[in-house]
C-alpha cells in the first residue's frame, strides 16, 4: 500500500480525491498547517506527493523546491493554471508529471500508477548497480554520477533517461521510443515534458564535463556518445 501526500487547500477537492484514491487502496494524507509543509512531509515520508500550485503562504513551486532539497520522492503537480511556463517550471524543479484542472479521475489514476510503477519497480529490478560511462561511474541505485570533477544526484526520471540512452550508446533513440519506455502510456505525456527532462539532465551532466555526451539529433531523437579510448 502506498502513502500519498496531497498538498491541496481546496477541502472539497481534497476529500473527493482522497475518497477516489482510497478505492484503489492508496492512503492519502493532507496538510494540517501550510506553514509546516516540509516538516509534515519529513514526518510522513510519503511514497508520492501530489501538490497544487496555488496554495496559502507559499506556492507549490516553493514546496516542490524544498522537498527536492530533501528527497527524490516522485511529485505530481495539479493546477488550474494553463500557462505553458507553469508546466515547464514544474519539470525544471524536478516534478515527475503535471495535471491540469479540471481533470478526469481516470487520467489521475493512470498517471499515479505509471509514476509509482516506474519509480518503485525500477528500484527493485535485478540490475547492475554501477556502470562506467565516459570515465564516470553511474550508480543506478543511488541515482548518482561521479567522476574526477565531482558528483551529481539525478531524479528518478533523469536516471531512467540516462540509463536508457547509455544502454543504447552511439545509437539514436527516437523521442517516441523514449517517451513510451519512460511513461509507458504516451497518451498522457506532452512532447515538451521530455524536452524539459533531457535538458535538465544535460545541464546537470555539464557540471561533470559530460553535457556534450548527450546529443540532440534534430528530427530524430537523442544519442548518448561513448568516449573513445586511444
TrEMBL record:
CDD domains given in the database record: REC_OmpR_NsrR-like, trans_reg_C
InterPro entries referenced in this protein's UniProt entry, alphabetically: CheY-like_superfamily (IPR011006), OmpR/PhoB-type_DNA-bd (IPR001867), Sig_transdc_resp-reg_C-effctor (IPR016032), Sig_transdc_resp-reg_receiver (IPR001789), WalR-like (IPR039420), WH-like_DNA-bd_sf (IPR036388)
Gene Ontology BP terms: regulation of DNA-templated transcription
Modified residues (4-aspartylphosphate): 52
SUPFAM superfamilies attached to this UniProt entry: C-terminal effector domain of the bipartite response regulators (SSF46894), CheY-like (SSF52172)
Response regulatory domain mapped to chain residues: 3-116
Ranges where the OmpR/PhoB-type domain occurs: 125-226
This protein's record includes keyword Phosphoprotein: yes
Annotated Gene Ontology cellular component terms: cytosol; protein-DNA complex
Transcription keyword on record: yes
Gene3D superfamilies per UniProt: 3.40.50.2300, Winged helix-like DNA-binding domain superfamily/Winged helix DNA-binding domain
Keyword entries, A-Z: Cytoplasm, DNA-binding, Phosphoprotein, Transcription, Transcription regulation, Two-component regulatory system
Highest taxon, organism lineage: Bacteria
DNA-binding residues: 125-226
Chief place of localization: cytoplasm
A GO MF label: phosphorelay response regulator activity
PROSITE patterns according to UniProt: OMPR_PHOB (PS51755), RESPONSE_REGULATORY (PS50110)
Compartment(s) of residence: Cytoplasm
PANTHER family, per database record: REGULATOR OF RPOS, SENSORY TRANSDUCTION PROTEIN BCER
Protein name: Response regulator
Organism: Ornithinibacillus caprae
